[in-house]
UniProtKB/TrEMBL annotation:
E.C. number: 6.3.4.2
Uppermost EC category: ligase
Signal peptide from the UniProt entry: none
Protein name (record): CTP synthase
Amino acid sequence: MKYVLVTGGVVSGLGKGVTASSIGVLLKACGLRVTSIKIDPYLNTDAGTMSPFEHGEVFVLDDGGEVDLDLGNYERFLDVKLTRDNNITTGKIYQSVLEKERRGDYLGNTVQVVPHITDAIQEWIERVAMIPVDGKEGPADVCVIELGGTIGDIESMPFIEALGQFSYHVGPGNFCLIHVSLVPVLNVVGEQKTKPTQHSVRGLRGLGLTPNILACRSTKALNENVKAKLSQFCHVPVENVVTLYDVPNIWYIPLLLRDQKAHEAILKALKLLGVAREPDLQDWISRTRVYDVLLEPVKIAMVGKYTGLSDSYLSVLKALLHASVACRRKLVVEWVAAGDLEDVTAKEAPDVYKNAWNLLKGSDGVVVPGGFGDRGVQGKIIAAKYARENKVPFLGICLGMQIAVIEFAQSVLGLDDANSTEFDPQTSHPCVIFMPEACSAAVLTVDVEFGQLYGNASFVDERHRHRYEVNPDMVPQFENAGLSFVGRDETGQRMEVIELPSHPYFVGAQFHPEFKSRPGKPSALFLGLIAATSGQLDAVLQNYGHASKLLPNGMSNGKPIVKPYQNGNAIKSSNGSLNGVYSNGNGVHY
């Protein structure tokens, strides 16, 4: 096994995750099998209880693991399926060591950071690196490891010590360190300054790690004299100093690395030059070129409660982008804070209220993503009602689907107090209720009849993160009024997909389809949304196999887009779960 370690210096937020993902893409294009590990030095055992405002979205894996959003980047870029163990945290390491200590595994020895914590880190890396993630048998050729945080952070010290030992343990030719650093440009003089990177590398070397490659973030390509200076003071060959300058979109990063022959430097350090081929990035290049020439916009209103930080909905944004590129449209996301649509805002901040409504009414489609807690719920209900009544394409995800059901119950069934027991435990018409039996498990398995929408596949695999479900006792009442529940679990008791057949595209999913969307394989539900907003739904279906291999014939405006659920003829799906985060007063609210 070969290892590539990606570290960061000077400041946080330089894009280590995208850099690590792009390195993986480049190595994969060279014919190598690649896996990834993300190290997060925080004490949490996972990201499940962390606020989106604090750390961005919580990404859910196939095994139910709730992990850092960078693992979403890895999965999207490399088209792999990672496990919860591919995300290492300080909490996980200390927990595993303390469990061993309580069992007496250390035979009475004093348990210390060195060697016990550092050994546990190394053992974890070696074990997880051997797990295949690309659907093939046997381990990958290269494991790309991203160390979160910035060199010099106190919480990173045990990991840095462990990785220094690890580089010695695996030996020369099996370890390559890429240090991502900042080369700022001072506006006053317009000069690229190398001193911050010099200090960062000096600190890194003082901790026992020597970089093989410098990946320098800057606003523009580094001048040759700047590269030479960095080479001299950082003891890195000048050809191993690469620039990651600002680009229109992150799909350019693998191409930037290739054009600067970063793959050759990596392969040389790993002694793989005679094994790997020249990188084949033709599909990646084609996709990037398509993105470059997109002009006709498609405006999507994102109605949520975490709109102040786009990373809170990162996977939703990526899924929308994948679908938009497939439909040859330039994505424009209009951020609408759900609370700004409510009447109380009209009284307290009329300008904010007016602006929110202008954004909503000016959009071609509406997305209500997942979330927890009751803040902004009324605004989401208002957005769902607007989309339903005005025939605006709509996609509700997780809580967004529940919102659509609540709105239908209130507006169409005339049940004014209809609500979720999450928000109103005393409601006389609980159309969404707490059903933890399956969702509280580490792995949620359901059977869903998706029929035509997913190409009549033998099974559909989607990921979940919820504990509340549509009340099965009210389903007949909804269906008699025109709301179809076209996806259910194998028992028929858990509603997975809703659709309004009389609407051009009004769909809700209890699962999170965004987590499995890929640049070359957009999520079916997101592709359907963008196709509907841009008037291409029929064309996409008629050209099934060209614009998309996810949306087959049978889906058209004004007609059912999936076959009705038939008990006993369901499609099996194994999914993730919500770990430890409740929204009923027993857990974490944001």
